[in-house]
Amino acid sequence: MCGIFGSVLKEGRVAPIIHDGLKRLEYRGYDSVGFATIDSGVLQILKDKGRIDDVVESLGLDKMPGSTGVGHTRWATHGAPEMINAHPHSDCEGRVAVIHNGVIENFMELKEELLNRGHNFTSRTDTEVIAHLIEEEMKGDVGLGEAVLKALRFLEGSYAVAVVSATEPDKIYCARNESPLVLGVSDTGTFCASDVPAILPYTNKILYLRNGEFAELDKDGFTLKLINDGSTLIRAPMEIDWTIEMAEKQGYPYFMLKEMYEQPSSLRNALRLQQRYLDLLTTFLDRGEDLFLVAAGTSYYACIAASYMFSKLARLTIYPVISSEFVEQYGSSLGVDSVVLAVSQSGETYDTLQAVEHARMRAATVIGVTNTVFSSLCRRARAYISQQSGPEIGVAATKTFTSQLMVLSQLAMKLARTKGKISQDEVDELEEKMFQIPDIVEQVLERHGESIGDLVNKYVDKNLYIFLGRGISSATALEGRLKLLELTYVPSLAYPAGESKHGPISVVEEGVPVVFVCPRGESRKDIVGSIMEMKARGAKIISVCEEGDKEITSISDDVIAMPMGIPDVLSPIPYVVPLQLFAYHLAVQKSLDPDKPRNLAKSVTVP
Ligand code: G6P
Fold first, then answer.
1. Which residue owns the Cα nearest ligand 1 atom 4?
2. Whose CA is nearest to atom 15 of ligand 1?
3. pLDDT attached to residue 607
4. Do the first three CATH levels of 252-435 and 442-599 match, i.e. the same topology?
5. Residue 551 and residue 219: Cα distance in Å, rounded?
6. 508 has which bridge partners?
7. Residue of 196, 217, 286, 492 with fewest CB within 10 Å of its CB?
8. What is the CA(79)–ligand 1 centre distance, in A?
9. pLDDT < 50: residue spans in the chain
10. What pLDDT, on a 0 to 100 scale, did the predictor assign at position 339?
11. What's the rounded Cα separation, in Å, for the pair 152 and 174?
12. pLDDT at res. 574
């Protein structure tokens, strides 16, 4: 996730407005910053790594001349956060400046083709191919707008882009496919940005660009076209009545709710990983003798789920270990044949980094999955994958958890293919299902986003909750319970359902809510027995199960019905969503702030 902003003003300098716009988009990323403005027929690009205010100050970006310009705040996905990888990017001749948010999936092929044609690349980003593609099209003696349109047609993946050039000094060309882009019109000029808050101080007349749309901005407004055939579209902006604070949360009352609703799109991004990094990580895992998944908090629960995935799909034993325990538990037995896959949203969790350091000292191979490309974990790992979820502001992890699972399931699937332990048909089928998961999560949010609030209402006064599942669903149950604990502070338990009779069932009494996670498949085995055990002791049963599962429905007090056909091994991704919603609604009904749970920090960088 990155933030993009552009404006064509009727008069005055645009640079301070770009600065202000980017500040309002800082939540989308903050590892590097760059501006491009046009003045007296000259395009000037200034950029560097660092946070917005620091780079603006050090490069004097606020003082750049010109009333047309674009700016970018970056959250690295391809290429480290370095000056050369900061946006805007340009072509060989420095004629165009391109800013981009998204992931160009076919950039390696495009880059190779462009290199063969003699283009010189200066960065390691996917974005730079767009600038060179435009340059290539401009050789055909077409105008800038036409060249941008033609270039866009080569791109596969997600993008919100904005392009400026000194050849058309009072224009911005922009387009979107799956990454957000909004336009704004006012008496002072025209704007484009990744999100409404950046534009709102100047106008409330907003148009949301849709997938496959392209816009030409000038000081008086914009014209819209379809990318695929260049045909013109007519759509007027709408007037929105949000305050800036509401706009920052896109109209959602809390960041956590916004982030839960972002999951369909963050999951799609997590499916756009670069194959060569997936290959690299699977090669390390394949070579290792002792394999460990090391993480804390929510990331640890993603690791528990992943250990089932690796075992079921690739027949690989990989131990999930809480990072603060790792050195004590396995530190002495680590060696050159050990592989430690550290999973950390922030890449900065102290205990995880300690585990990583220890593993490195013992000559083990350390690899990572993280959401923060410039983190300490990345610097210490032999190889890592970025999960590409964008910054998460709510302290309780939601979209980053489901994306971690998506990344880990792709690794497991890749190993399944290379090791050939399950049939290719089975892997193909699972992979097809995996690509449907973002849509399934979207359906779950649509169906249950609000109604879980009514369900929660019935249980708002309970002072104990239990979350149970079997198999991979025990990881889902653990994460559901962690959300509840973090947000509502209500004491609660979660453990694999089969464990009840070994102790925890002693706390069950009349009216205690027990949430069962029971997707159809292997983890549903024996769950009916577990439900009956709890019912017999007066528990209230809330089941998250497949729609049409009559047996579970008949023995439950409340049912959260999930779409049919979700494979058990991928079920934690959609099945955790109602549990996130449950915790969120319970917190709100208890008048607690879900974005800022007491005593907790987003990133724990201390022992
Ligand atoms: C803190 C956060 C959790 C997070 C955990 C691990 O406890 O509040 O949401 O899961 O740290 O963080 P990491 O960045 O390593 O995934």
1. 297
2. 344
3. 65
4. yes
5. 63
6. none
7. 286
8. 24
9. none
10. 98
11. 10
12. 98
Decide whether any atom of ligand 1 lies within 6 Å of the 297 Cβ: yes
Query: How far from the centroid of its chain's Cα atoms is residue 426's Cα?
Result: 27
Give the neighbor-by-neighbor strand order of the sheet with 42-49: 42-49, 32-39, 68-74, 3-9, 189-193, 182-185, 205-208, 238-239
Q: What string of DSSP letters covers 230-264?
A: --EE----EE----HHHHHTTT-SSHHHHHHHTHH
Task: Please tell me the predicted confidence (pLDDT) of residue 261.
Answer: 97
SS3 62: helix
CA distance 342 to 332: 18
Binding site membership of 604 for ligand 1 (Cβ less than 6 Å): yes
- What is the predicted pLDDT for the residue at 83? 93
Residue 292 CA to ligand 1 centre (angstroms) = 18
Ligand 1: distance of its center to the CA of 601 in Å?
Answer: 8
Name the nearest CA neighbour of 78 among 132, 31, 124.
Answer: 124
Q: What is the CATH number of domain 3-248?
A: 3.60.20.10
Measured from the CB, is residue 397 less than 6 Å from ligand 1? yes
Q: What ranges do the domains of the chain cover?
A: 3-248, 252-435, 442-599
* Cα–Cα separations (whole angstroms), residue 63 to 5, 7, 44, 83: 17, 16, 12, 19
Half-sphere exposure of 106 (CA within 13 A, CB side): 12
Q: How far apart are CA 74 and CA 87, in angstroms?
A: 7
Fold of the CATH domain 252-435: Rossmann fold (3.40.50)
* Distance between start and end Cα atoms, the chain: 30
Whole-number pLDDT of residue 596: 85
The answer, yes or no, to whether any atom of ligand 1 lies below 6 A from the CB of 215, is no
Whether 1 is in the pocket of ligand 1, judged by its Cβ within 6 Å, is: no
DSSP β-bridge partners for residue 368: 342, 384
Q: What is the pTM for the complete model shown?
A: 0.80
Which pLDDT score is estimated for 376?
87
| Span from the CA of 602 to the centroid of ligand 1 (angstroms) | 6
User: To test ligand 1's pocket by mutation, which of 602, 605, 606 has the most ligand atoms within 8 angstroms of CB?
Assistant: 602
Rg, C-alpha atoms of the chain: 25
Catalytic residues: 2, 602
Nearest ligand 1 atom to alpha carbon 349: 15
Domain 442-599 sits in which CATH superfamily? Glucose-6-phosphate isomerase like protein; domain 1 (3.40.50.10490)
The reply to whether ligand 1 has any atom less than 6 angstroms from the CB of 345 is yes
Ligand 1 geometric centre to CA of 604 (Å): 7
